[in-house]
Write a structure and sequence with these properties.
- The protein is mostly helical.
- The protein folds into two domains: about 1-195, Clc chloride channel (Orthogonal Bundle); about 205-400, Orthogonal Bundle (Clc chloride channel), CATH 1.10.3080.
- About 75% of the residues lie in helices and about 0% in strands.
- Helix 10 (about 205-240) packs across helix 17 (about 375-390).
- It starts with a helix and ends in an 8-residue tail after the last helix.
Length: about 425
């Protein structure tokens, strides 16, 4: 049983690294296509429609981020119902359709899908070894997925406690630690020790820089809450509207959302396509972003998320936050621009997911900004508090309720 657990965790790490490499390649191919930018007006809507069709007809349960599915699966007791949300078949579909979405320019990330993939692999390993303890293994697989996707082991553990389970469970803490360690070792062995945003030496220097902590927290919390409200209410409205003609209306919505993403991409000079990591890293390094980047990336991410295609919110949310931080830095005329960009990420990401500890730990680990721990904590906490004034329920848990409310057939999958 232990060998099965260890093998599952190592597999999560290996698959996560391979997925990350493939995602980068898909985005690179799309960037080559953008030599003729207007091609996106056809490619992006058609790609969205194909992914939406496949997510409904071939891989039902693969749509969206994947984190709500993992949360919902932990609340289900019936194995057949859980199989509809987490399975090795869905793992294949999630990877393929997310890669196609990135190839078409969707403003999505791979971290949320990696959570569903990690949970599915660990659940499959549990069944192979006859282990039981499905809830704990789903938690462990989710944590391992975050750790391997971001190369942030601490964030994986915090994410499992704060977002997935909403509590510290002593019975599963050992499994979570083992899964994160082994998945992290697999990632380190394949790609080495790296940081997405390099190693930032930025620090807050003078009073105006500290004022930016409050501004980034408040603005990030308000804008993050707006995104969360759009997602929760928009998902409910679309679900009701699609009920009469599910497939035809779903394809129409996907095509329209794809067109919106393409128009945002054209308006931004191509910077809003894909995960947004390059734009965010450039902002952290002080290269700056266009004044309209945050708004256009926000719209593109909302359209991608509501379209019904598979894809996560983590990376695009960090990019939107980077745009907010960059704008705050320009408006206030601060000294440490890269540091304010990190604060914008923390405030906005915490406002979206309402998981402040996860937010500052992820951003701190991704940037190596050891001198920004306290400011990142403050921005995350402020963003969380402001967001809660407008949206009482966290985004992922609200979306998970939609999966729990779906009728479950009693026949075989």
């Amino acid at each position: 049983m232990r060998l099965v657990l260890w093998g599952g965790a190592l597999t999560v790490g290996i698959v996560s690294v391979a997925f990350a490499w493939a995602a980068n390649q898909a985005q690179s191919v799309f960037q080559h296509i953008l030599v003729r930018p207007w091609l996106a007006l056809a490619l992006t809507p058609l790609g969205f429609m194909f992914c939406a069709w496949a997510a409904r007809a071939v891989f039902p349960g693969a749509q969206g981020s994947g984190i709500p599915q993992a949360i919902a699966a932990r609340h289900l007791k019936d194995n057949l119902a859980r199989e509809k949300l987490l399975s090795l078949r869905l793992t294949v579909g999630k990877i393929l359709l997310t890669l196609i979405g990135l190839f078409c320019g969707a403003s999505i990330g791979r971290e949320g899908p990696t959570v569903q993939i990690g949970a599915s692999i660990m659940l499959g390993a549990a069944r192979l070894g006859g282990m039981g303890r499905e809830r704990g293994l789903i938690l462990a697989g989710s944590a391992a997925g975050v750790a391997a996707a971001f190369n942030t082991p601490l964030a994986g553990i915090v994410f499992a406690i704060e977002e997935m389970s909403r509590a510290f469970e002593t019975r599963t803490s050992g499994m979570v630690l083992i899964a994160v360690i082994l998945a992290g070792m697999a990632s380190l062995g394949l790609v080495g020790n790296y940081s997405y945003f390099g190693h930032s030496m930025s620090m807050l220097l003078v009073t105006i820089d500290w004022i930016a902590v409050l501004v980034c927290g408040v603005v990030g919390g308000i804008v993050g809450a707006c995104f969360s409200v759009i997602m929760v209410n928009g998902t409910t409205l679309l679900k009701n509207w699609l009920a009469r003609a599910p497939m035809s209306r779903a394809l129409a919505v996907a095509g329209l959302c794809g067109l919106i993403v393409a128009l945002c991409g054209l308006a931004s000079g191509g910077t809003t396509y894909g995960t947004g990591y390059d734009a965010a890293r450039g902002a952290v390094e002080g290269h700056g972003l266009a004044a309209n980047f945050a708004l256009l990336k926000f719209i593109a991410t909302a359209a991608s998320s509501l379209s019904g295609i598979p894809g996560g919110l983590f990376a695009p949310s960090l990019a939107v936050g980077a745009g907010i931080g960059n704008s705050v830095a320009v408006l206030l005329g601060v000294h440490a621009v890269g540091a304010i960009v990190l604060l914008g990420m923390a405030g906005y990401f915490s406002g979206v997911v309402q998981a402040p500890i996860t937010s500052f730990v992820i951003i701190g680990e991704m940037s190596g900004a050891t001198g920004m721990v306290i400011p990142l904590m403050l921005a995350s906490l402020i963003g969380y508090g402001v967001s809660r004034l407008f949206q009482r329920q966290s985004l992922y848990h609200a979306l998970a309720h939609g999966f729990l409310a779906e009728p479950r057939p009693s026949g075989p999958p």
